[in-house]
Each structure stands twice: as C-alpha cells, then as structure tokens.
Amino acid sequence: MNKHIFSTILTSFLSDFLPNGRNVSENTVSSYCDTYKLLLRFLRDIKNIKLEKLLIEQLSNDLIKEFLQYLEAERNCSPATLNQRLNAIRSLFKYIASEYPDLALQCNRIMQIKKRKAIRPNIGYLDEETLKMILKKPDITEQMGIRDLAILCVCYDTGARVQEIVNLTVKDLRLENPPKIRLFGKGNKYRFVPLMPNTVAIIKKYLNEFALNEPNKFNHKLFFNRNSDTITRAGIAYIINKYCRDSKTIIGTNISPHILRHSKAMHLLQAGVNIIYIKEILGHEDVNTTQVYAQADLRMKISALEKASNLIPQKITVWQKDKDLLVWLDKFQKQRITT
Questions:
Q1: CATH code for residues 128-289
Q2: Which of 64, 227, 233, 241 is deepest in the core (most CB within 10 A)?
Q3: Which CATH number fits domain 6-111: 2.60.40, 1.10.10, 1.10.150, 3.30.70?
Q4: 292 or 270: whose pLDDT is higher?
C-alpha cells in the first residue's frame, strides 16, 4: 500500500497532530476541516479525481492555485477568506513535509503560494461615552437584566473572545484582592486578566442573585440562558447586539460579538497602555496581531487632523503651480494612509 495516501495522512493530521501535537482548539480544527472538505469536493466534482485513490503527489502547486481561483470565482470568497483557506492547506503540507521528507520539495512549493492582498476593514469600537450609555440599558431590577449586565461588563473588562466567556466557570473567578479572572483561550491556554472594582461589584451581585456563590456551584458554568443551560456563542452575540444595536450609526459598522473586545483594546491603547500589555490581556500570540489596533488608531487620528486642516484657509504657494506634483503627492499620501 502506498504510504502517501491522502486520506490516511489527513486523518492523522486532524485527529492526532493538531489536537495533540499543536494543541489547537476545536474551533481551529473545525475551520481546517471546512477547507479540506471544499478542496475534496473541488477535486471530485470539478477535476473528476477519485478521492479514495487520491495520493499526496497529485496535489501539485498548480492544482492548489486552481482550487483557490475556483473559490474566488465560483464562491465569491474574499481575499481574507482565501488566505484563511490557504493557511489551512499550508499547515497540512508543513506537517506532510516533516513526516515524509521525500515530499518536502512538493510541499515547499505549495507553502510558497502567495497570500492575496486583503484590505483590512476598519475596526468598529465604542467610544467611552457610548459604552457608558450601553451599560445603563440592562434592567437590573430583573434577574436576567443583572445577568446581561454581568456578561457585558465581563466581556468588556477582560477583552475576552466570545468562546472564552462561554467557557467560564465560577471557579475561574478570583474576587479577593487583587481580583482577576482566568480565561481559557486559543491554543488551549489559560491566562489571568485583572478585574476592575466596578466589574467585581456587578459580578458579586450576579453571583448572589443566582446563588452561584455556594460551595456546590464551584464548577458551575458562570453564565447560562433562561433555561439554565450553558449559554452559547450565539446567545452571547444576541445579548451584545441587543444592547448595542442603537450604536450602529455611531460606530459605522454592523455589531459584531467582538465589539466589546475591540473597544477594550482601543481604550487601553488610547490611555497610553503599552501594546505588549494589551497583547497579554487579549491573549494574542504575536504582537503583530495586536498592532492592528495601533494602526487603526493612527488612521483615525490622521482622519481627524485632515478634517481640522480644512478649517484653515489655504495659501497660494509655488507647489500649486505644479498640478502634476500635487496629484502625485495626493495619491502618495492616500496610499500611505491606507497601507
């Protein structure tokens, strides 16, 4: 039997290497699976390749490029989505190259396929005044209003991902000084994030209201729905959107479950907090991921400065005599701002 059978290698990669060797989350494995299913359907339905006999040697550099072009043309995938699919393919072939050195050259060619240039969208976030307004909306005379406020405050104060909020249990809280919360995030890693006094007071009120501060509730999920079942990602997204929907016109974007996470990061940055510390709070592995907030803040500052400069009367200078140069400078400036 040929040792380079695709199905055998893919099974080992997904069931053993990713969860055990790389310690990646279930969400990452699921995302990778989506990519491989798309690839296999492309090979079967478009290229008429029999999957049960598929060998790694058949997956050439050109074939992977053709697959990405198919996703772009037939499925209208954005550059960001194409890059996500390519990352999953690269990860697989990096694994294959390490396990089967005789395939290293073929794998390296695939890993060298260039990513598409994606336009990074503006980061939607809530300014401090808008956030204060939103946090006043839950009706704390009702149990579920207290729960909603606790969810909103924990989401914002920790800058946590939605799944990290879902994963929380009562034992993850440390409310004695200094108060903090333990988050279980990407890469199956824990991190501790400090809690502010106002958030601690709201959490205590919530725990007391739902009798979660009793010893037998130590392992109980921190947040749950009206049916007392563990709250889902969709449930938290619904709560966030419920109270933030009036702010769509303010932030100029659709409300994402990440809106409070983005807001925390931007507020810390604008308060002068070191970006390395922000990286640790957000749970980013690479500071370059956190750097996007600094770039977004810079773009907003430049935009504000441009608006302010329109208030000053322009003087005629020698530069205005050279229209071509002005056009070039204008284009050059815009390119620098958007890159």
A1: 1.10.443.10
A2: 64
A3: 1.10.150
A4: 270
